[in-house]
Design brief:
The protein is built from 21 helices and 20 strands. With 626 residues, the chain is of the alpha/beta class. The strands form three sheets. It has a seven-stranded parallel beta sheet, with helices on both faces. It is elongated, with a radius of gyration of 29 Å.
């Protein structure tokens, strides 16, 4: 029997060697480079630990490298002394189990075996998930290398949980995991927390491997899974249910593995197919489009704008579209109820108008692949849903120019809400517009969402007259802050957005914009007719003429708010380009402030609880501001 086991393991080993040779890779075990020993800044004995099998990558020295395939399967002939010892160890394992620990060195979550190569080989052959081992850890020097940065985040995670089987190569993913599990605080886990987490992980791992997926990426797949389906809601599931759900999130997993990110579509230029396919519609003959709002039109100007857009959509496509509206969908439970009701009523397309409904939308999108779900947010990397958002910074740029023509002391106020994608670009664009008109202009920045207050009152106490807040530029005088005289307003034509996106489904051009595992984000502005600036008639005639010139130039693509030299507070061009405007992804991810802005990007801990919820979803990565 053990001879047959060796024969099967040998065939697997020779198969791996052949595949590695064809691909130009190492055909034997990897060897720990001498340079890693030399570069290590510290050595630490971890004692006896459970070593995950998929993390055992090689051997400590070259003596055994050619005895095994890259995956630790044997490659020596069946009549060799090596084969006899492997078979004896196999017999021991089948009779009583392998108990003696191996010895290994760990570097950047890769384990290199010193003693116990055949024990690893036998256990790998029988599908063991881990092997006991006495481990010495080598600490790499700190560097800007993302893998090294992620490794030091792993060390913090390991200190909290004692778990070493989850490996991420990109910074921030361990924090993502902690938040997805619901334990983002830096408190050590209890024995019960560790047991439940470990049990569910290995159940997930079993389901993942049964689908014949690459074991090296089980950690990334696990993170995607619990973010979509929820950790607490999933940990009582059976392996069979997880196996059914895994194919549904394939695109989400690929997006993370391939680092496919998001494709930002700046132009509304999709062309109608020459032969438009038949659109599957309900019996009524109309496409049913549902809208899920986090608040209500009566309580929120934001929701009112989206509701007006829904009305405009239904009016313009009368006879082709019917709509449903759900307000105050502000919990995961309400979201699930609203999605379920919309689908049951025949919705083939669902818009969610707040980033807080992003993850509930992703879950429903993978459960209902025939329903097209979109979320109003920016720069989110979930290909199962498409996202959309206006390029508000273009309107903010014009408002900065307006304010600069009016100020008499070169001071202009700006009250921001959330340090999220696109918003920092809006602040900098406002400063760019102001500086274009008045070289001495300075922007004084405060925030509406700080625990310790601030916002409009802070600017008013400074005696600043012209202040932009929540999309409105106004003149604030006296103590009645609510009675400010509005001068300019950023206008978002949501109906234009919805009309164009829904027509993609009606006319059969929806699939043309798919980009593999990349997420799709519609980011439209003035030249798509989505964004504009409404100006008060009380503005001076020269200012209104300036607005017309700037609007026309932006609509025609002749002007970019960030064209030319744009410096951060260190006096550097963050994009290292002196002429061309930065690409869309760099504008989206701006995490620094112009030197003409007096203020700073707040730390996460300074924000209110509701603001933190939004920033967790789409907050920018902050770079320190002096």
């Amino acid at each position: 029997m053990v001879l047959e086991e060796y024969h099967q393991a040998l065939r697997q080993g020779l198969k791996e060697v052949k595949a590695a040779a064809a691909a130009g890779r190492e055909t034997g075990l990897l060897v720990l480079p001498d340079s890693m020993e030399a570069k290590a800044v510290r050595r630490e004995s971890l004692g006896l630990v459970e070593i995950p099998m998929e993390l055992i990558d090689g051997t400590y020295n070259a003596m055994r490298r050619s005895d095994f395939s890259p995956g630790f399967f044997p490659v020596l002939s069946e009549d060799s002394e090596f084969a006899s010892k492997w078979e004896m160890l196999c017999k021991t394992h089948l009779a009583e189990g392998i108990r003696d620990p191996i010895k290994a060195v760990e570097y950047l979550n890769h384990f290199y075996v010193i003693e116990g190569h055949k024990r690893v080989s036998v256990l790998k052959h029988f599908g063991a998930s881990s092997v006991p081992g006495t481990v010495t850890r080598l600490y790499p020097p700190h560097s800007d290398d993302p893998e090294v940065a992620a490794y030091y985040e792993f060390l913090n995670f390991y200190q909290l949980t004692g778990q070493n089987f989850l490996v991420f190569k990109r910074p921030g993913e361990y924090q993502e995991l902690l938040e997805a599990v619901g334990m983002p605080d830096r408190e050590p886990w209890s024995a019960e927390d560790i047991y439940r987490f470990r049990s569910f992980y290995y159940m997930f791992r079993d389901a993942y491997l049964r689908k014949n997926l690459d074991p090296h990426y089980v950690s990334q797949a696990f993170l995607v899974y619990i973010k979509i389906f929820g950790y607490k809601a999933s940990r009582e599931k059976m392996t069979s249910q997880i196996m059914r759900e895994l194919p549904k999130i394939r695109q989400e997993i690929l997006n993370r593995l391939e680092n496919a990110g998001v494709t930002v579509l700046l132009d509304d230029d999709v062309k109608r197919p020459l032969i438009s396919p038949m659109v599957s519609m309900p019996v009524s003959g109309k496409l049913c489009v549902a809208f899920l709002h986090g608040s209500s039109a009566a309580a929120s100007r934001w929701e009112y704008g989206h509701e007006y857009g829904r009305y405009s959509l239904e009016t313009n496509l009368s006879g082709q579209v019917r709509t449903l509206s759900y307000e105050n969908v502000d919990t995961d439970e309400k979201a699930e109820e609203a999605f379920e009701d919309a689908v049951n009523q025949g919705a083939g397309m669902i818009f969610t108008t707040t980033p807080k409904l992003l993850l509930p939308g992703v879950k429903q999108a993978v459960l209902h692949p025939d329903v097209k779900i979109l979320n109003c947010s920016l720069n989110t990397t979930y290909p199962s849903v498409r996202t959309y958002y206006p390029r508000i910074f273009e309107a903010t740029f014009i408002k900065g120019a307006i304010a600069a023509t009016l100020t008499t002391d070169d001071r202009i106020g700006f009250v921001a809400d959330y340090p999220t994608f696109g918003n920092i670009a809006g602040i900098n664009a406002f400063a760019q517009g102001a500086r274009m008109v008045n070289a001495n202009a300075r922007i004084y920045l405060t925030w509406d969402t700080l625990r310790e207050g601030g916002g409009l009152e802070e600017l008013h106490e400074m005696g600043i007259l012209y202040i932009d807040r929540r999309g409105r530029l106004a003149a604030h005088s006296g103590r009645n802050l609510d009675g400010a005289h509005n001068l300019a307003l950023a206008q978002i034509r949501w109906g234009r957005f919805y009309l164009s996106i829904v027509r993609r489904v009606l006319e059969g051009s929806w699939k043309q914009e798919s980009r593999g595992s990349s997420a799709i984000n519609y980011w439209w502005g003035m030249n798509q007719g989505v964004v504009d600036v409404l100006c008060s008639r009380s503005l001076p005639i020269g200012t209104r003429r300036l607005v017309t010139v700037l609007r026309t130039a932006l609509q025609a693509g002749r002007l970019d708010p960030f064209y030319g030299m744009l410096m951060d507070r260190q006096g550097q061009d963050p994009y290292e380009e002196d002429s061309a405007p930065p690409p869309a992804d760099q504008i989206l991810s701006m995490n620094w402030l112009s030197p003409y802005v007096q203020g700073r990007i707040p730390a996460f801990e300074e924000l209110t609880e509701s603001a933190q919820e939004l920033v967790k979803l789409q907050g920018v990565e902050r770079r320190a501001n002096p």
